[in-house]
Amino acid sequence: MNSLSPLLPVSYQISSWKGQYPKALQHLSSQGVHSFEVGSTFLQNLSVLKDHLDKYEMNVSSVFEFGHFQNMTRKREILWHHNLLARKMSELQIPCIVLAPGLRNRNTLLSQMYQFIDEIIKIYSSYNIKTTIHPHFKQCIFYYEEIKQLLENVNQPLFLLPDTFHLNLANINVPLLIEEFYKSIYGFHIRSLDYVAVISRICEGLDKNCWMIIEEEEKTSPSFNRITQNIQDLKFFYDKRHSLWNYE
Fold it and tell me: What pairing do the DSSP bridges indicate for beta strands 130-133 and 159-160?
């Protein structure tokens, strides 16, 4: 099997595999991909997860979680949860937390939300973990102006890790997003490799440290064939248009 060496780091979201995730890790490793993203529930048993990381020579690129930024009634509980999660991530040297904003609450002021996000970022920063925001459909940060206002009003170091699928739903112009927030973009979730123009602009507009995290379509069953196809589609795109993949 050819090993793949992308100039842009590539990861794969495997949360849909749940308890069968070791099979996904083995298959990803055989395909030359050695990084993956999971939901926070995968960190319940760190020793077991670490054993699988060592066995398949894998690393966790990022952890996905909900921020619940407008839930002021549970603020103390939410901060406690983020602190616990940050400690677990630190033990495995996971460098990035990906936070979906959470549901809107009309009683929460934007100033309260921004202050709350600052507190959350401080927690992760204390463990040397970067905080990224994943703008999400039907949640409190989704549209372009909401993203812009967030970055303008949060005081702590904050990064973006948007999803091409959600950007499309929000009618966000990806080249404009990259041009304006270049320094704040940590990576992208690539939900569908059909967005050729989007992937092209991502490759051209960002440096080699920008993560490309493949995320499968919702409500699809875990499949080795799907993993293989998604990786091969991305490799083919790189080979044909940007020559970003090298063969050994």
Answer: parallel
The pLDDT score that the predictor gives to residue 184 is: 93
pTM of the model: 0.90
DSSP structure string for 99-119:
EE-----TTS-HHHHHHHHHH
49 to 25, 53, 61, 65, 131: CA distances (angstroms): 11, 6, 14, 18, 22
C-alpha distances out from residue 43 to 15, 37, 62, 67, 161, Å? 12, 11, 12, 17, 21
Specify the number of domains making up the chain. 1
Of the pLDDT bands very low, low, confident and very high (cuts 50, 70, 90), residue 79 is very high
Domain of residue 24, CATH code: 3.20.20.150
Contact indicator for 227, 12 with CB cutoff of 8 Å: yes
Q: Is 169 helix (H, G, I), strand (E, B) or coil?
A: helix
What are 33's two structure tokens? 């991909």
Q: Within a domain: residue 69?
A: yes
> What is the rounded CA–CA span in Å between residue 46 and residue 52?
10
Across the range 70-84, mean pLDDT stands at 97
Tokens for 229, please give them: 């196809």
